[in-house]
Design brief:
This protein has 237 residues and is α/β, with parallel strands linked by helices. It contains nine helices and ten strands. 30% of the residues lie in helices and 29% in strands. The strands form two sheets. A seven-stranded mixed sheet has the order 3-2-1-7-8-10-9, sandwiched between helices. The radius of gyration is 16 Å and the shape is globular. The relative contact order is 0.16.
Length: 237
Amino acid sequence: MGIFDFFSNNKQKSEFPLQRSESMMLKEKLVQFTGKSNGIVVMEAGASGGEDTVEWARVNGVTKIYAFEPEPKSFETLKTKTAPFNNVSLSSLGLGKQKGEHTFYISTNENAPGSLGVSSSIKEPLEHLSFHPGIKFEESCTIQIVNLDQWAAEHHVEAIDIAWLDMQGGEFDVLASSPRMLATMKVIFTEVSLKPMYKDAPLYMEFRKWLESNGFEVVEEILPWEDMGNVIFRKRQ
């Protein structure tokens, strides 16, 4: 899902501290953390309707964005919004542990009828149901999942400079199952769980310790709520 889709459609999280202009500044800061001025490759998992994807396509120095969004309605919106940009490559696959079919839990927001399923996940919702009772998970579909290392090998992608992960609990599975691509990443911006919002999604401190053991350090924590937030990690120098 797109980071701003979530905040605008979730009543309890309407006070997110970033405005859209600040969102571009955040992306530009992540580019600076890579130490590169050009040829930067971004992988976005959970692209939703493409708000963040479009911003990434406009960031100086970013030459390629690989955006993944498995939810059909969101993917159609993503295609429309990113059509003008030739540096964006889209995939309707989900990312996960291994290639195959997987149940995808689709969210709806009773406070924003017709909005995209910004809390949808391959992870079954747990405390999300009580934290955000206005967001329902009454539908599901079957999607195709691919392992990031396998996908990169098949598409001749040698490295990913920035990983932008907004997957509602699925972020750890993507990174842990793809050590080859993880080793190439310089910056990771990831959603983290502070409560057991989704089944089998590790909590933030466990996720953080694992990334630290793989050579990353925390640059900034954006944790304004009790349940979930975002954290910037950078590869240690």
